[in-house]
């Protein structure tokens, strides 16, 4: 897995191709249907181009807002995700414009049989969260945005290859800081996807609980749960805070993060911070994937957990069949 994290920038060099492209086009609204690591590319796109009409659907059935000028992008890295297959089949039966993104499985089987447009991802045996470079490039192709963001992608690749050693080292150096703590990650709304990657990697790689929230909303409710009193101190001291700072955030959100950090420290709570202020939004997100990947990988080593598999997810899938 360590090598997969390190080689992530090379995934952004992937050149996807749309099969049955004559049945695909441009639409007014897009819904990305995906679960787990197979929808994270949607959050990256929302961060890079927040004005683009893409919403993520993480459930069975069609999105409730599917309209006449809407299209479905069904994404499943394995091609066998139950919820995504359900969305795909319902969209197919109702003749909703549809494209599939996967490395194989039932999703591509049906797409080929029904001559539905699809993009085949490289057949790499990796966890979906570490195939996000492939998935992101495929999403750009499906949305017709690959040329619009071509320069930003190339710039990100070059920069990430230069800085990945430092990012990997930083993750290793700070991995002991959160030992025996439940990570709670805080970032701005704009950087929600970065907080998401930290959480997902703590969950899937380190195999520990982790949660996230964003400012300014958390300043109106959640942070009140950490106002230490003797009766709750033992519970709250089990949390370690990961704060994501960004100099490009709204000035008041920067101020909110600074004040929040100082208040948590005043209460004797454990905090660790990372500066993710890259101006290239693609570089910023993928830097966070490498950093959080390294951090969670080395924490898994300290706990003696297997960073590769997701055994509880696999057990759950078997039990709900």
Task: Report on this structure.
The protein is an alpha/beta fold. The protein has two domains: 129 residues, Glucose-6-phosphate isomerase like protein, domain 1 (Rossmann fold), CATH 3.40.50.10490; 140 residues, Glucose-6-phosphate isomerase like protein, domain 1 (Rossmann fold, 3-Layer(aba) Sandwich), CATH 3.40.50.10490. 45% of the residues lie in helices and 16% in strands. The strands form two sheets. It has a six-stranded mixed beta sheet, sandwiched between helices. A four-stranded parallel beta sheet has the order 8-7-9-10, with helices on both faces. Strand 2, helix 3 and strand 3 form a beta-alpha-beta unit. The longest helix is centred in the middle third of the chain and has 24 residues. It is globular and about 60 Å long. The mean pLDDT is 96.
């Amino acid at each position: 897995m360590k090598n997969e994290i390190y080689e992530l920038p090379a995934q952004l060099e992937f050149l996807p191709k749309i099969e049955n492209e004559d049945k695909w086009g441009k639409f007014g609204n897009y819904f990305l249907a995906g679960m787990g690591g197979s929808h994270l590319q949607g959050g990256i796109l929302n961060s890079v181009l927040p004005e683009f009409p893409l919403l993520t659907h993480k459930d069975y059935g069609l999105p409730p807002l599917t309209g006449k000028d809407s299209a479905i992008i069904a994404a499943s890295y394995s091609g066998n995700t139950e919820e995504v297959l359900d969305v795909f089949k319902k969209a197919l039966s109702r003749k909703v414009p549809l494209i599939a993104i996967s490395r194989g499985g039932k999703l591509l089987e049906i797409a080929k049989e029904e001559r539905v447009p699809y993009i085949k991802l490289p057949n790499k045996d990796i966890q979906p969260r570490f195939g996000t470079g492939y998935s992101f490039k495929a999403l750009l192709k499906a949305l017709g945005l690959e040329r619009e963001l071509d320069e930003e992608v190339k710039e990100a690749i070059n920069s990430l290859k230069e800085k990945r050693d430092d990012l990997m080292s930083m993750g290793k150096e700070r991995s002991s800081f959160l030992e025996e703590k439940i990570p709670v990650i805080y970032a701005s709304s704009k950087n929600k996807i970065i907080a998401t990657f930290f959480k997902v990697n703590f969950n899937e790689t380190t195999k520990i609980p982790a949660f996230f929230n964003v400012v300014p909303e958390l300043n109106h409710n959640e942070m009140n749960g950490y106002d230490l009193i003797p009766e709750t101190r033992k519970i709250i001291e089990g949390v370690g805070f990961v704060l994501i700072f960004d100099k490009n955030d709204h000035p008041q959100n920067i101020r909110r993060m600074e004040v929040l950090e100082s208040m948590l420290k005043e209460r004797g709570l454990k905090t660790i911070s990372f500066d993710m202020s890259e101006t290239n939004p693609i570089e910023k997100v993928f830097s966070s994937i490498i950093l959080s990947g390294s951090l969670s990988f080395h924490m898994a080593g300290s706990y003696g957990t297997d960073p590769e598999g997701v055994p509880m997810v696999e057990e759950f899938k078997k039990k709900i069949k």
